[in-house]
Here is the input.
Amino acid sequence: MESGGENGAVIIASELTRRYGAGDTAVDALRGVSVDVPAGELTAVMGPSGSGKSTLMHILAGLDKPTSGSVAIGGTELTTLDDNQLTKLRRQHIGFVFQFFNLLPMLDAEENIKLPLSIAGEKVEDGWFKELIGSVGLGDRLSHRPAELSGGQQQRVAIARALVSRPTVLFADEPTGNLDSKTGGEILELLRHSVQDLGQTIVMVTHEPRAAAIADRVLFLADGLIVRQSEGASAHEIVEAMEEIGAE
Amino acid sequence: MIRFTFGGLLTRKLRTVLTALAIVLGVVMISGTYVLTDSIDDAFDEIFTEARQGSDVVISGKSAFDLTEGSGVAEPSFDESLLPEVQALPGVALAEGTVDSESTSLIDEDGDAIVFGGAPNLGFAIPNGDSPFNPLTLTAGAWPGPDEVVIDADTADKKDFAVGDQIGVQVEGPIERLRISGLVEFGSSGLSIGGATLAGFDLPTAQRLFRKEGKLDEIAIAAKPGVSNQQLLGEVEEILPPETQARTATEQASEDAEETNEFITFLQGFLLAFAGIALFVGSFVIANSLSITIAQRTREFATLRTLGASRRQVLGSIILEALVVGIVASLIGLVLGLLLAKGLFWLFDAVGFTLPNTGLVFETRTIVVSLLVGILVTLVASLRPALRATRVPPIAAVREGATLPEGRFARFRGIGAALTAIAGFAALLYGLFGSGLGTTQVLLWMGLGALLIFLGVALFSSRLVRPLAQVLGWPATKIGGAAGLLARDNARRNTQRTASTAAALMIGLALVTLVATLAAGIVNTFKGAVNDLFTGDYAITAQNNFSPIPIDAAEAAAKAPGVTSVGNVRTGEARIFDQTEFTTAVDPGMRDVISMDWVEGSQDVLATLGDDGAFVDDGFADDHDLQTGSTVTVTFPNGNTRTFTIKGVFDPPTGGSPFGPVTISAATWDAEVPRPRNLYSFVKMSGGESEANQAVLDDALADFPNAKAQDRQAFIDNQISGLSSVLNILYVLLALSVIVSLFGIVNTLVLTVFERTREIGMLRAIGMTRRQVRRMIRHESVITALIGAAIGIVLGIVLAALLIARVDFIDFSLPVAQLVVFAIAAILVGIIAAIFPARRAAKLNPLEALQYE
Here is the structure.
């Protein structure tokens, strides 16, 4: 399942374009993006607002369809799947972490975490669940409802929810965007840790250099194109890179 | 602010439409009821006026007291010798005498009586076809001669009769076959008389058929030119014998119309009551929809406040919004009411119950009441949510996830709800058990009580939502998987919202349950009574199960081979202790076919009443302090008075008995009542119930197509069948309020889906299929409906138990099968209500839903 690409890539996307609207008012959000997401790495996608980074993530995750180009996850081409097949694929291959956590208010933490499996009609393996809870650090909070949890704790629940089905790829959309910097830092550590210790592949969209700095690889997007890639860059280097893009 | 209001309405089109529908339905019912009843009323007025055309003064028979139509006795006829005396009066230009009968059966080719719906079968004499008094128009053939008949063209058309054909006619005696001399229409322009059959004869033939030889029922008189109606009336009154009266034709027409007017007034009140129920349910839907909308617009109101809008302006904008919705909905309802009335005429016609119709009547009162009620209900329902909106503080504009502040009185909600419900029960109980209340007062107290009970229970039910959803949602969690679990949690999420949505359905189901439980009580009690009392084998009644039939039918049956006894119950009215009482008379055969529970006297009383014996029921005996040996004085409709000695007192079973409060012997009855009629005849045969015996009786009754012989079970079923028709009408009318509550559920779900857009987006993103989304919404809808059903059914049973405790002729009995059907109906309501919102939810694009704020 984790095979697929020649170089161990779990997502292979080529020549993606995405146009919104038609005629004079048409907007090109992506203008030919090819990207491979290697297994077991954290890939960050950076760029200023309107650069197309969110569109790219949505297309890679099968939530949106490209106007042209192709995307494959774990060897399955997404662009030809119908809504039902895409839903099933998301269950199996994809986990999401959102900026606003998006937990269900009437479920407690444990129920929220198990939700994807319960929707898929599957049971969680006890050992794995304990390990997961331990690694996200939620042991004593499982019976709390979201309203009784802090922002950081809510995002931990969200991360556990994304990991519980052991997806091929976890997509994180501005995971620290709604948190203070200390809590944000802890969440980033948790993501980093799940790559290192659990071998999880993660794609994270962010505009925070500090967040991108934990990535193995950073893709810089501007005006719908990948303008730069760097590996293991520090926050400082990322800030410089961003400034260069802005200057272009 | 006005532009803000209208802008808001337009951007929330769907919600506005759904909310308005709740009001439209109620107003349609009001407007439709008025148009329908006004139109029928108008048509009857026209018929009765037309019937009196040409006459200035009318002489008719006068009973000693007012009689109820269809009670088995009619106004007495008078001697025809009065006619020449009248004709000799100086002011009289023309006078004609006629006889009539409201049970003149025409018999079709198959030997069955022709009946269209419940319309009457009118028979009358036409002394002179060309006279100005004759309201009929000949469309074919000629006026009737001896042993001939004219029938209405409509009946001839439907039953394939033509001039020259023979047709069976049966009134008091056996069937006679007469030649059709012509076909007629009522009035000059083919006025519809609503399914009634007409049969006109020459005077001697009519007198013979109606058993009124030498008698007349009416004399129509036209005045000479220059003689006023009052002068003519004065002349006539001088020669009037007792037992007759004279009225001007106009007075007579309005007298004729009195009974129909009473019926129409009843029908109007009856239908308006259901319109009221629908509007009451509609007000819940409106209040709930507005509450949700306002909660969702908290930020919007806060922003307005920061921009300088006062609380008053916020309130004003919401009230204005409600006003606009109320006006538009009421106008639509008003117009649709016309269509409803038209549709109802068409529907009644299609099921063979043609109503008289001379065109739709649209009175100003219809417009005023429909609009006023529709608008007021909308405004009252919007008041509470509007007041809540004014409490949104400006700071809410900048807060993420700001919610509507709780009302100041929120913590008194539970107590307030309980007090309202208690006040409701108190009012209901006062209405039921309070002494010295008139019928109208009883109904008003009961109505007020029911209203308060529903309101109180609806307010209180938010506390019942959690436990009820837990129990009623259990099946959903079993069959719906994760979607079912989420549905149950969603139903419990906002208990007040779920409770108000369910409350609308609760009202409808409580009323349906009430009706069903009362009906079950009546049916079971009646069955019990028949089984307790009836010791015969067969019962003979009219085809429609309730009209009194000529005694010749039972006499024919008595002669049939194998018949050992026949007990007849004559029925009519008499004046006893200054009150008009339902009075019955029995013949000696009754002893063998009915077994009573005697408090005083014995079964033999039935056979030994003699000329001056009577028996009474124990209630009547108590009221008037009667026992064996006491005497009662009875005044008959003909004015004669007789004194009877009490020979027995019986205790009727809860389900009633075939006897009135006072019963005398048939022989005495027949001496005082011309053309006596039987309500029931009970027959005992050697060999009991058998196919052969049934055939023997059918054969004996062949000449009386309006009579039928039934065995015990068929008799019970037939007697109850009238009740089932009434029940079905009630169910249809109550279905209207259930439909209104269905719209309420749709509305809540649409608003909820809208509110949870992002959540649904998330669920789709993490692997929920469209089908699962639909299932989740559907289960939530069903759980909500079931909560309403559970509370409604329990409430309905409680209300029924209270009513039954009040009346002494019904025992309580639970209609289990119907209640199961109602629960299933509630599930269906839930499923149907969810169709549209579920589809909308499933269609949400997860991407857009996630970005939605």
Observations:
- The interface with chain A takes residues 481-483, 485-486, 489-490, 492-493, 758-759, 762-770, 772, 846-847, 850 of chain B (CB under 8 Å).
- DSSP finds 25 helices and 25 strands in chain B.
